[in-house]
Design a protein that fits this description.
The chain is of the alpha+beta class. It has 9 helices and 18 strands. Helix content is 31%, strand content 29%.
């Protein structure tokens, strides 16, 4: 496997692991962080030699009100550009101090290595005087309920790293060239509400055939927001974000962005929701017919049989890939829709809408029931 391909896969795995903050997931994420940022020449540095991206790690800045001999601040992720923060390069980021015990500093590097080596089971014992002694102190003296401050910090380190890696990945795969490709873009803003527990709850379904040339977004029976694409041969590819309520908040507005673009024999698939961002290149012709023609359903599957339960605030569909600036502008417009309408459209049961001329709903179209012009 090439360094570039490994890098892409590790970014995806990191996002999945930090999305659902269980102790097991976060300890597993430390292995990826160590591989990307710490070990050897650091994979991030190796792949970045090709694209020369600016690596800026943005960390929340906090003030130490008193010279305490024992403290740890795990709140590192800065989700607001207006909030106090510091911009660091990789080495500064790894050396950034997040805590102190009796004069011994705790750095981001130590948090990553402690979780990967000690909590990950490479070694189980922390000897007196070890570089991990201070960070082990905070993990051992945690509350019985909830995550230790070490694991909270680890998750936020993962989120900061994710935001640095994604632009590097996009440069590596030359995402910009796909802005002029053939394909489609779909964005929609909604609240996911609890639905039937024993069936998939469909949000969006592109295509007219159940088994070929189809792209679907739904919440599966495990409560995970799922993206599925079926090629012209019927082969399926799945991407699952996480359980609803974690990376995808329940009863809270989210914007889902889907882009499919083909250039030559390569197809770019880009799927975003919240902080989760997956992009990959498929080297074949199998997805070129998905979305051509652009027939879709909102609130059910392509046959109108499945149910859903959600508030729908706004959407945007177009038979072309959008550039990053255009995506940002549409996203801003969709965000404004939630402010204009406190409730949006409430889909439940077998209520759904479909594109005009959808061949699976000709009788429904003739009766003028909810086609989308």
């Amino acid at each position: 496997m090439s360094q570039e391909r490994l890098f892409e896969q590790l970014i995806h795995e990191l996002q999945v692991l930090i999305a659902v903050p269980s102790e097991r997931n976060l300890i597993s994420s430390s292995r990826i962080l160590r591989q990307l940022l710490v070990d050897g020449g650091a994979l991030l540095h190796l792949v970045n030699r090709k694209v020369r991206a600016s690596l800026i790690f943005r960390v929340r800045k906090f003030s130490e009100s008193s010279p305490l001999s024992e403290w740890m601040n795990p709140e590192l992720f800065c989700d607001d550009n207006e909030a106090p923060h510091v911009d660091l390069d990789l080495q500064q980021f790894l050396a950034h101090r997040v805590g102190m015990v009796n004069g011994k500093e705790i750095t981001i590097r130590q948090v990553i290595k402690y979780a990967a080596i000690i909590l990950g089971g490479v070694h189980f014992k922390v000897d007196s005087g070890s570089e991990y002694e201070a960070v082990a102190h905070f993990h051992a003296n945690r509350d019985k309920i909830g995550l230790s401050p070490v694991l909270v910090a680890l998750r936020q380190i993962g989120a900061i790293t994710r935001d640095v890696l994604i632009p590097v990945r996009d440069l590596l795969i030359n995402r910009k060239k796909f802005e002029s490709g053939k394909g489609w873009t779909a964005l929609f803003c909604l609240d996911i509400l609890p639905g039937a527990l024993d069936e998939d709850n469909y949000i969006f379904d592109l295509g007219v055939n159940e088994n070929t040339n189809r792209f679907s977004v739904y919440v599966d029976v495990r409560g995970e927001l799922t993206f599925r694409i079926i090629d012209r041969n019927g082969a399926r590819r799945y991407l699952r974000v996480s359980g609803v309520g974690y990376a995808v908040p329940a009863k809270e507005s989210i914007i889902v962005t889907c882009v499919c673009s083909t250039v030559g024999d390569e197809t770019l698939l880009s799927l975003r929701v919240g902080g989760w961002d997956h992009t990959e290149i498929v080297e074949s012709f199998v997805y070129q017919e998905v979305g051509n023609p652009l027939h879709f359903v909102m609130g059910s599957d392509c046959l109108g049989k499945k149910h859903t339960h959600m508030f729908w605030y706004g959407d945007f569909f177009i038979a072309k890939p959008l550039a990053e600036l255009e995506l940002a502008q549409v996203t801003q417009w969709l965000e404004s829709k939630t402010g204009e309408s406190a409730v949006g459209l409430h889909y439940q049961g077998n209520q759904f809408m479909h594109s005009a001329g959808h061949p699976n709903f000709l009788d429904r179209i003739n009766q003028s029931e909810n086609p989308i012009a």
